[in-house]
Each structure stands twice: as C-alpha cells, then as structure tokens.
Amino acid sequence: MIRAIYPGSFDPVTYGHLDIIRRSSGLVDELIVGVLNNNAKSPLFSVEERVKMLDEVVKNLQNVKVVPFEGLLVEFAKRMDARMIVRGLRAITDFEYELQMAQTNQKLSGDLETVFLTTSLQYSYLSSTTVKEVAAFGGDISQFVPETVIDRIQEKIKRRV
After folding, report:
1. How are the residues of the chain apportioned to helix, strand and coil, as percentages rounded to the nearest 5?
2. Which helix (H) or strand (E) covers residue 6, if one does?
C-alpha cells in the first residue's frame, strides 16, 4: 500500500491545492493531507477551521484523509506510516526551497521519498497569500478558491478590520 502525505498550511485551501490533491490521490492508495500548525505564522484560519474546509472540499475523494499536525514532517510521516511526501511546484523559486526541504527530510528519514508535481498551468500563479490580499481589497476570489471557502475568508477579513 502506498500512503503519501501532502503537507501544507492551506490558509486558505485554493484551487491550486485541490489540483495537487486530486492528481496525487490518483497516484497513491491513500493520500493524507497534513494541515500544519505553524506557531511561527499568524494564519487567517485556525487549524481546526482549515481541516474542516479541506474535509468539505475533498469529501468526494475516497482515498483522501485530512489530518492536522505540528512539528517535523518526518515525524508526522512516521506516525502516519507514510513513505512519500507530495509537493507542488509553481516556479523555480519553489523548486529551490522544496529541494532543500526534500534533502533535509531525506537526511532525517532515509526511507521517506519526496515526489514533486508541477502545478497545472492555470494555477501556476496562485497562492494562499495572493487570495488573502485580493480578498482584503474586496476583489473577486471566486476563481481562486472553492465556493464554500469564499464566505469564510470574507468574514475573517471583516473581523480583522
């Protein structure tokens, strides 16, 4: 059985994330979407809210499970009995960072492989940060995130102002 982890903060989940989730779930028996609780960042959504949003948008993918985690990815992978990490690449700058992380993870856990999927062209520009910036200025984010996420983003941004 091939079990992989697609880790990220998903703050918020975008169509780019969903593209990688759909495509990678077709390559493995089970895909665990690992929602990172990163204390170094100030996310728009709590981990619980991000998990709930992801659960809603992947509910039709039978082999996808959403699980929150904190700490080292390699330790999370061991707990989940996963031997593969999936990462999406949008640009060369992503590759440089992701290659460094993949090599670090390989040193920390020699039996953990990282697989890179290039983002579909239609999502190559898209990031959660961009979505939050567009939403903060009242822009239309419907082409960037699932419908169930739009109202949540707008409500969070209203509360922050």
Report:
1. 45, 20, 35
2. strand 3-8
